[in-house]
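Help wanted!
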Amino acid sequence: MAALDSLDRRLIDAYQRGLPLVAAPYAAMAEQLGVSESEVVERLQRLQALDVLSRVGPVFDHARAGASLLAAVSVPETERDEAAAMISRCPEVNHNYAREHRYNLWFVMTAADETQLGVRLDTLEAELGRPLLRLPMLEGFHIDLGFPIPWAELESS
Amino acid sequence: MSVSTCPSDQATREARDENALDALDRAIVLATQSGLPLVPDPWAAIAGPLGIDGSEVRRRMQRMLDSGVIRRIAAVPNHYRLGYLANGMTVWDVDDAHIDRLGRVVAALPGVSHCYRRPRHLPEWSYNLFAMLHGHTRDDVEQQAEALCSLLGDACRDHRILYSSRILKKTGLRLAARSDRQA
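Answered by r_m:
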């Protein structure tokens, strides 16, 4: 893993839970961190290029921003890669994981609304030729406080 | 799109549709879902192509934050790159009578990032509570699952940890335009 200095760590620790929605957010962060705005922008660009940050931006509640559904399908191991590629090819699928279970492919389908979502799932189900286990969210018990980053452990590895 | 000339009508409609996204909100979602531009004034950079100004982008994003459409605007770490190498989707068969209370308890545990109630599909699928656990190793995840198991006690009949063996695709929200591939 790339070396991250104390400013990188402070940036991540301070802003993984939210950054200020003000006219010049990076300048506001710079002021809090005691560095220049251009330094903050450069750091964020670098951390993003290193994939330490997936992005700097809004985290949407999928259920409120549109329709989405977790689905799983059980396919024989020999057909798994082909089925996985079929699922990943859908531009509306935003997560697709192979998991160690009889239901071995798990993915999230998204759409603008419930009707469109149903059509997309039916289409993919027909293409896969196997029944989808459809697992809509009935209730979210969200807290999601973010994670303390294990900087010390990372150092030793 | 019709233009209302009656302010009170418009106020009523705005109050009723406070949480609904209009076309411009959706355009902002599309423009920001893979990240904000890393320039001094990111709002102006987003606003330009949409033909509005930066303060309008900011006002609308604030409203989406207030209504919960946006959970937060943040520097989103890639947990995998930061040492959380093991993630286990745990699934639990929890007594329906207690799931509301227990779901909240589980969601509050450290290491749990997502916790949802989902439907059973008997006989193939009997699990109705999903909790995503994150740790540095599988041992960590297993210890967390064990702690969770004793916490749930008799209300839980069965559980499984489904480790991901491969991440095949992972992107931010993919909100396609309404007209996109309807069929």
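OP: Thanks! One thing I noticed: Chain B has two domains: 12-67, 86-163.
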